[in-house]
């Protein structure tokens, strides 16, 4: 340590004596710890210290030794009690960090919301779409490899790339809302079809078709068992194809169509053929109301039927017949049946029904045998607006949530009846000036609310964080102790006056020696 001090000060000079006053002046503590300078040891170029006297001096004056070491290592520690303004690093740094983070996040939000909210909302306001819903029925769903448009895309920036599904619908106005009163002996039956997503499928290329038995609907070598859901009647079939054996998977790897199979030997069913649902044991005894709703059948014994809008009676049990209709939604209570959007109202003689029947026979009676009665519910062709319109989930035909919304949308709205299940029927929206496009989701109130929230919140956060950062730039400064403070906490003249007093005191402590003072706050 002594060697370090010797080499630092370089106190090898011609003068060999020092006065006691010089040493005495070095042993006095300066008035301010923060204004300590090397000149308080005396002029280094005029005095030199002997080994014994320097060691004795440092032992008695450990205070100056610590100051000297801190000065050499670039440290200028200032006690908090000696500061005019205390350090405010934590609060200032926290404020700046939070504002910077808010500024970045709000900027990103504004960019993202431009595509997700602002542009779609503006397009919705200008679309001219009637906010009153009408009804749509899916007519066909087509898979396309190269799409000019798609019914639903998972990300709007890539909605037109790759394969997609295009859904076409029949567009019509709403039907009649009916209320069947004083109903008793009610029953309902759900005729389950085939769930394409959950049904077991045999892939012939994997040698899974070698033991097929029953009726199968095959597409490119992938066969779906429909035996339990449908009963198919046919007269003609093609020559048998053997899917078992060594070459079975090769023979059946590309089969398409409806096949009747027995232990791996399959025959393609040729048209004409008729496949009916295996939905049996529907109780029709003592029933005078039969309402079809998709795959469900509601039956009851009611007194009369009332038009919910006009409050007029459109049917009474005194007519001694059976009323039939196809409705979108049915609410069955203890004494009444409420049916919404009913179409194709008709009447049927009692003797056409037995105690039990099946779904196929009921559908046949409704379409071909019953007598149309527009007073009960108008026929669908009188309500038609467009026979084939393009269906889109919204005006953009895409969503930005990345939550597989399109998968659920296509599953619910893409049912076109090709699998012998009921077609999808749902409310939709259209513009009278553009009937070839309909959307499934449209709500101007929700759109306006989302637009306001998405505009105000990030914009306010962006402006406030920007102003706070500008305020910090103008009012925050870094002192000599590397601490941040607000300029408004103390007057600048006070700081300069305090520093000048400290400098004068330091000069007095040096005993008249010269040198540069290191000014600290």
UniProtKB/TrEMBL annotation:
Keyword annotations of the record: Membrane, Transmembrane, Transmembrane helix
GO molecular function, one term: sodium channel regulator activity
GO terms under cellular component: plasma membrane
Protein biosynthesis as UniProt keyword: no
UniProt organism field: Ceratitis capitata (Mediterranean fruit fly)
Descriptive protein name: (Mediterranean fruit fly) hypothetical protein
Example of a GO biological process term: regulation of sodium ion transport
InterPro entries listed in its UniProt record: TipE
Transmembrane region(s): 101-119, 451-471
């Amino acid at each position: 340590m002594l060697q370090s001090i010797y080499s630092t000060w370089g106190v090898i000079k011609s003068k060999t004596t020092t006065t006691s006053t010089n040493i005495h002046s070095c042993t006095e503590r300066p008035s301010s710890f923060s204004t300590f300078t090397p000149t308080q040891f005396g002029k280094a170029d005029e005095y030199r210290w002997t080994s014994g006297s320097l060691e004795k001096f440092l032992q008695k004056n450990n205070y100056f030794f610590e100051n000297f070491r801190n000065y050499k290592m670039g440290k200028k520690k200032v006690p908090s009690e000696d500061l005019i303004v205390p350090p405010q690093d934590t609060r200032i740094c926290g404020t700046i960090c939070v504002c910077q983070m808010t500024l970045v996040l709000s900027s990103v939000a504004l960019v993202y919301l431009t595509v997700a909210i602002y542009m779609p909302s503006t397009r919705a306001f200008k679309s001219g779409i009637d906010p009153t819903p009408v009804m749509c029925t899916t007519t066909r769903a087509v898979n396309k490899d190269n799409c000019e448009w798609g019914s639903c895309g998972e990300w709007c920036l890539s909605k037109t790339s790759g394969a997609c599904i295009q859904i076409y619908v029949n567009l019509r106005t709403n039907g009649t809302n009916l209320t069947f009163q004083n109903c008793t002996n009610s029953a309902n039956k759900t005729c389950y079809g085939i769930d394409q997503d959950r049904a077991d499928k045999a892939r012939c290329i994997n040698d899974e078709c070698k033991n097929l038995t029953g009726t199968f609907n095959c597409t490119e070598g992938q066969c779906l068992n429909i035996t339990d859901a449908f009963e198919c009647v046919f007269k003609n079939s093609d020559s048998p194809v053997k899917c078992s054996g060594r070459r079975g998977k090769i023979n059946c790897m590309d089969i398409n169509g409806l096949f009747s199979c027995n232990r791996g030997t399959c025959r393609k069913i040729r048209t004409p053929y008729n496949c009916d649902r295996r939905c049996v044991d529907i109780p029709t005894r003592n029933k005078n109301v039969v309402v079809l709703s998709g795959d469900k059948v509601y039956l009851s014994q009611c007194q009369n039927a009332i038009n919910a809008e006009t409050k007029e009676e459109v049917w009474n049990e005194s007519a001694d017949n059976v009323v039939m209709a196809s409705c979108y939604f049915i609410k069955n209570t203890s004494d009444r049946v409420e049916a919404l959007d009913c179409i194709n109202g008709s009447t049927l003689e009692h003797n056409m029904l037995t105690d039990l029947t099946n779904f196929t026979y009921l559908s046949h009676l409704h379409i071909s045998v019953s007598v149309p009665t527009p007073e009960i519910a108008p026929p669908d062709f009188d309500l038609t607006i467009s026979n084939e319109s393009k269906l889109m989930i919204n005006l953009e035909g895409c969503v930005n949530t990345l939550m597989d919304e399109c998968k659920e949308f296509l599953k619910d709205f893409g049912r076109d009846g090709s699998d012998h299940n009921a077609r999808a029927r749902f409310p939709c929206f259209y513009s009278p000036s553009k009937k070839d496009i309909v959307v499934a989701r449209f709500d101007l109130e929700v759109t306006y609310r989302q637009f306001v929230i998405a505009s105000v919140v990030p914009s306010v956060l962006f402006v406030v964080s920007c102003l706070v950062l500008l305020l910090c730039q103008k009012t925050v400064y870094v002192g000599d102790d590397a601490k941040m403070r607000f300029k408004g906490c103390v007057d600048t003249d006070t700081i300069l006056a305090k520093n000048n007093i400290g400098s004068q005191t330091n000069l007095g402590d040096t005993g008249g020696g010269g040198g540069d003072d290191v000014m600290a706050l």
